[in-house]
Amino acid sequence: MKTNAKTILLFIMSLALITIISVSYAYFTTAIVQNEVKDQVVTTGTLSLRYVDGSEIVMQNIKPGATITKTVYVANTGTLDAVYNLVWQELTNEITNDEMLIEGTCTRMNATTEVEDGTCEGITSAAISSSSIKSKITIEPSIVHKYDLTITFKDISADQNYNQGKKFNGVLGIKEPTQFEKDSWETIATNVRNGNISNYNLGDTKEVDLEVLGKHNVRIANTSTPSECSTEGFSQTACGFVLEFEDIITNRNMNSTKTNDGGWPVSAMYTYVNTDLYNILPTDLKNVIIDTTVVSGHGSSNDNNLTSIDKLYLLSPSEIYSDWSSNGIYDSASDTTRQLDFYFKENVSISLNTQSASKYNDYWWLRTAHSKNNTNFFRVNNSGGPWYNCSSTELNGVSPAFRIGWLTKMPAMSYDITGFIML
C-alpha cells in the first residue's frame, strides 16, 4: 500500500493529466472500456499546481442508474498557498432534465509523509449544467487533494425515453480563477464605474448561490457602450457591463395561459424573474445591480413595442444573433437593441456558430413576443438557434441577464435616476 501511495504521489509531482469521460444512452446494456490517457500539462497561470488522474473511461449504452467513478489528484508543488477551480475543460451534455449528476469526496494528503493530513471539502451532489464543478479551492504547499468522484445518470423511476440516444462527454481539469472570480461584487462595481475593467474578459464566469436553485455561474456578456446606446427608444439591455447566466437556472412557462398580450412586462415570467428570483440573489450582488430600460417586441394584441424598467431581464434574439435585425421575422423590436459583445466575439448568427448560444442542449426563453399571433414567445432551441413559435404555456429554461453598476445603497450620498453619484 505504501509503495502504491508513493508511486501515486511521485506521479502527481511529475505529470499532469486530464480525464475524458464519454457516455451515450440506450437501455438494458452497459459496456465499459478503459484506455490510457495521454500525458498533458494543465496550465494554471502563475500557480504551481499539478493535476493527475488515471485512465480514460468510455461508457456506452448506459441506462438510468448507471454510474462512473473516477479518482483525480491536485497537488500544490509550489511554496505558497494556491487557489484553483475544478472544472469541465470540455463538456457536451445532451442528457436533459438535470439527470446527469456529479458528487465526490475529498481527502487531504501530505505529499511528504504520504498520509492523510486534515480535511478538504468534497463535492455535494449536483446536476452537471455548466463547466464549473467546484470553485475557489485553496490548497497549501506540499498538500495533495484526492477527489473520488461519482457521475450518475439519475434514475427517476419513470419513463426516461426522452434521453434515449443522447450523449454525454467531458474532460476534467483545473484552472486558475480569473480576476472576475476573485473580486467581490463591490470591487467589480467600483471598477466598472471607474472604467477599470481591463482584467475582466468576455466569457469570464463567477459563481452565484441561488439558495434552493443551487449554485450557478454568470458570465460577462458585454462591456461596451457604443453610440447607438444613446439613441432615443434604444433598449439598454446590451449596453454597459452586462452579465448573463451561463446555464439554465430552472424551467418555467412564460404565462399560465396561452397569451402574449402585454408581452414581457406583464408576463408571469417577468414577475418571477424580477421578484422571486431577484429576491434570492446574494445581498452584495443585489446592491450593485442597476435598473435597465428594456424594450421588448409585442404580440398581435398590441400595436407598440413595450418598455419596462427591470433588475433582471431575458434576452431578445437581436442580442444573440448578429443578423437578426435584418432577417428576424415576427419581432417588432428587432432594431431596438444590439448584439451582446460575447456573442459578437463568438461570431453567432442565425446560421453560424449557434452552439455558443446553446445552454447545455436545452431550450430557453427569450422575452420577445411573436408579433403575428397572441399566444407565442421566442426561445432558443437546443442547438442554439432561434425558435420562432413557442406557446407561452410551454416549459422552457430561464436564463436571465442583468447589468452591474455601483453600490446603490451608501450613506451620506444621493443618487440621480441614472445611478451617478451627485456630488
Output the structural class: mainly beta
Please count the helical segments: 7
Q: Note the main sheet.
A: 6 strands, mixed
- Rg over C-alpha atoms, rounded to the nearest angstrom: 23 Å
Low-pLDDT runs of 5+ residues are: 1-19, 23-45, 407-423
Helix content: 10-25%
**Strand residue content:** 35-45%
Span between termini: 69 Å
Topology:
Elements: H1 2-14, E1 19-25, E2 31-35, E3 49-53, E4 56-62, E5 67-76, E6 82-93, E7 100-110, E8 116-119, E9 123-127, E10 132-139, E11 143-153, E12 167-175, H2 179-182, H3 185-194, E13 205-209, E14 215-222, E15 242-245, E16 250-252, H4 268-279, H5 283-286, E17 289-290, E18 292-296, E19 306-310, H6 324-327, H7 341-345, E20 364-369, E21 376-380, E22 386-391, E23 396-398, E24 401-404, E25 414-415, E26 421-422
Parallel strand pairs: 1-4
Antiparallel strand pairs: 1-12, 2-4, 3-5, 5-11, 6-10, 6-12, 7-8, 7-9, 7-11, 13-14, 14-15, 15-24, 16-23, 17-24, 18-19, 20-21, 21-22, 25-26
